Automatic annotation (TrEMBL):
It is an enzyme of class 3 (hydrolase). It catalyses: beta-D-fructose 1,6-bisphosphate + H2O = beta-D-fructose 6-phosphate + phosphate. InterPro entries: FBPase_class-2/SBPase. It comes from Agromyces mariniharenae. Belongs to the FBPase class 2 family. This is Fructose-1,6-bisphosphatase class 2. The keyword Cell division does not apply. GO terms for molecular function: fructose 1,6-bisphosphate 1-phosphatase activity; metal ion binding. Keywords: Carbohydrate metabolism, Hydrolase, Manganese, Metal-binding. Pathway: Carbohydrate biosynthesis; gluconeogenesis. GO terms for biological process: fructose 1,6-bisphosphate metabolic process; gluconeogenesis; glycerol metabolic process.
Length: 330
């Protein structure tokens, strides 16, 4: 959480924003040869190396606060790692590939994704690997019991409960919340991996999803919170340890799984999220971001980003074999 007196970062220089977006493009491009390889560790390791190299050259005083990988013992950018050549103080949450197993098996929904905010602008989740999360586009609605949330969304949309679509990651730990959403009359949309992609859609009205709920990865929760903040949507979370060891570490760090984390706790100030598709992704209502693919002049990558007080933007980029990124005119 923001340290007392820390001013939230109000703006991001356009060059820094482009460099952060391009870092995700470099990561996505780096794993193109590994899509469908079956080797998830190689996917993560290659993306981490590409991201680390790209981040090193950005003119910021950067600090990693959440880098997905610890719970799966996968290569990762480690919390506390510094990056950049100096300048604006930024904190970074990053998942070099959300959907590693999707990329390794050549399925849709894998993306390189990072989010930034000002120094101390993300919650410190300590040793948490998992969070219970609820995300919805309806402001001030996250945290309602799922039956009341479904009823409220149906009322606001002037729709039947069955038209309210609730995405739940298909895991035994989420069976109860999925059953409660179904009992409330909602349509439950199970998914295997990629709760950031689903949360981005649930955080925007007019997509195929109204809610994401259930337990998923903790770093993904901070990335989601940054986007939810930028999109003006709502989110709550709580610690949800999935092993005795995780529970013990949480308690030892002074955290309790009964502590609700609101959006103001998770990401209180302005935040920016940048992503690039590894395989085809759908971050919003405005169609598919195509999978990164090799062309004669380099690897074409589709990116998407969102920041405070502006609509999401899409860009097409070309990543050269030297890692240099340029706009890709057709
Ligand atoms: O697969 P688990 O252990 O249930 O963890 C859930 C998390 O894993 C993912 O499905 C995939 O994450 P990674 O590809 O980064 O490992 C996330 O979207 C989700 O938050």
């Amino acid at each position: 959480m923001s340290s007392p007196g820390a001013a939230p970062l109000a703006d991001l220089d356009g060059r820094v924003a482009r460099a952060l977006r391009n870092a995700t493009a470099a990561a996505a491009a780096s794993v193109v040869p590994l899509v469908g390889s079956g080797d998830g560790m190689a996917v993560d390791g290659t993306a981490v190396d590409a991201l680390r190299a790209a981040l090193a050259a950005i003119a910021v005083d950067g600090r990693v606060v959440a880098g997905e990988g610890e719970k799966d013992a996968a290569p990762m950018l480690a919390p506390g790692e510094r990056f950049g050549t100096g300048g604006l103080a930024l904190d970074l949450a990053v998942d070099p590939v959300d959907g590693t197993r999707l990329a390794a098996s050549g399925r849709d929904g894998a993306m390189a994704v990072l989010a930034v905010t000002g120094r101390d602008g993300f919650a410190d989740l300590g040793p948490a690997h998992y969070l219970a999360k609820q995300v919805t586009w309806l402001p001030d609605a996250a945290g309602l019991p799922i039956d009341r949330l479904v009823a409220r969304l149906a009322e606001v949309r002037g729709a039947a409960p069955a038209d309210v679509r609730v995405a739940v990651q298909d895991r035994p730990r989420n069976a109860d919340v999925a059953a409660r959403a179904r009992a409330a009359g909602a349509t439950v949309v199970p998914f295997e991996h990629g709760d950031i992609e689903r949360s981005l859609r649930a955080a925007q009205p007019g997509t195929d999803l109204d809610v994401v709920t259930g337990i998923g990865g903790a770093p993904e929760g901070l990335l989601t919170a940054a986007a939810v903040r930028a999109l003006g949507a709502d989110m709550v979370a709580s610690y949800a340890p999935q092993s005795a060891g995780e529970a013990e570490r949480l308690v030892a760090s002074g955290r309790s799984d009964s502590t609700p984390l609101t959006l103001d706790d998770l990401c209180p100030g302005p935040a920016w999220l940048f992503l690039s598709a590894v395989t085809a992704c759908r971050p919003g209502a405005d169609g598919v971001l195509e999978a990164a693919r090799r062309e004669a002049r380099g690897i074409r990558v589709a990116s998407w980003d969102v920041g405070p007080e502006r609509a999401p933007r899409r860009s097409e980029l070309l990543v050269g074999d030297d890692g240099a990124v340029a706009g890709a005119g057709r």
